[in-house]
Amino acid sequence: MLNCAIRNGDAHLKNFGIVYTDVTEPATLAPVYDLVSTEPYIPKDVMALTLNGSTNWPDRKRLTLLGQSRCDLSLQTVNRVFERTADALSKIAPEVLAYFKNTAAHPDVGDRLLSAWDAGIKHSLGFAAHSIAM
Which of 88, 83, 81 lies closest to 132, judged by CA? Predict the structure, then answer.
């Protein structure tokens, strides 16, 4: 879901890991790593992995179904994750914009980055009225 929101087309199986603390205990997900928004650099980028046979960015309905069927999450939990993710991206957006405007060698990348996040929030998370400040 986060990779869809930030438009990370590079999220492939080598970017997901599991941790075994003991061979008799269940494995847990490793902390996230290698998160990058690829769409600002590769316009029209798509997902590296397929979801229901497609590499197109999924909409909220498809991500909700994934959370419910593959992760055994309730609709309430899925919705809460969507909301928290959209809120976190919106909260950090002004700092991202300031960084790219004031210190980055390519300030236009910041605009493209926030535009990709905005598209992810609107399409994949389903918050059409939600907007990233640009």
Answer: 88
Q: How many CB atoms lie within 10 A of CB 113?
A: 24
**Cα separations in angstroms, 81 against 23, 74, 96, 127:** 30, 11, 22, 13
- The encoded tokens of residue 34 equal 């290698």
Tell me the C-alpha distance between 48 and 9, whole Å. 5
Q: From CA 59, how far away is CA 126, in angstroms rounded?
A: 7
Q: Taking the domains of the chain in order of start, what are their residue ranges?
A: 2-124
What pLDDT digit, counting tens, does each position of 60-115 carry? 999 999 999 999 999 999 999 999 999 999 999 999 989 988 887 788 889 999 99
pLDDT in tens, 26-46: 999 899 888 999 999 999 999
